[in-house]
Specification:
The protein is mostly helical. It has nine helices and no strands.
Length: 199
């Protein structure tokens, strides 16, 4: 098996383990057993458990950043662009729950210790900040000298909706069907854009 293929097998085994049994079940030995490789094989690619988690987080931020770029490019209206990246964020969380749960857990992965991961995470947030600035200014509400508070507000909304969705907290409002829960979370995200239009 090629080196890249074996690394992928280890990562996929880790993701499956997290999704099925939670983060507490992740260990180098268990990942090796599940991947069908020797106990030492994961160490050829990852120094330790955090190394695996950092690789998963990196993959998550790369995919999320790309997804937000794709949907943003399709929208010319700044508020619709903001809504689009918000929907992309929540949809990513719904489709990649294991990635999502790791990406923002600093007690699991110290982002500052992983330069490439830190750069990717910062790049994704900078992109969101630029979209938020355009949306707020286009609404006519105000000229934005510092977009950070608005970016944090938008991020809090989409991250909160994503977390509520993954933790099953939306069931009582939207039912137990995954598609209906996702639809409800996406509607909540779009409310931010509607508030901007109202402003």
């Amino acid at each position: 098996m090629a080196t890249d293929d074996l690394r992928r097998v280890v990562l996929d085994a880790s993701l499956d383990l997290i999704e099925e049994q939670g983060l507490g079940a992740l260990s180098m030995r268990e990942v090796a057993r599940r991947a069908g490789v020797s106990h030492q094989a994961p160490y050829h690619y990852f120094q330790d458990r955090e190394g695996i988690l950092a690789a998963i987080a990196m993959e998550g931020f790369t995919q999320l950043h790309a997804a937000m770029h794709r949907v943003a490019e399709k929208e010319s209206d700044p508020v619709e662009r903001l809504n689009a990246i918000g929907r992309a964020y929540v949809t990513f969380a719904a489709r990649h729950p294991a990635h999502f749960k790791i990406m923002f857990r600093s007690e699991l992965v110290a982002v500052e210790r992983h330069a490439a991961l830190h750069e990717e995470a910062e790049g994704a947030f900078a992109f969101v900040t630029s979209i938020v600035r355009e949306a707020v200014e286009s609404s006519g509400a105000r000229r934005v000298s510092d977009p950070l508070p608005f970016a944090i507000a938008a991020w809090s909304l989409v991250h909160g909706a994503s977390t509520l969705l993954l933790e099953g907290k939306l069931d009582q409002h939207f039912g137990s069907r995954p598609a209906k829960r996702l639809k409800g979370a996406l509607a909540a995200v779009e409310a931010f854009g509607e508030l901007l239009r109202g402003a």
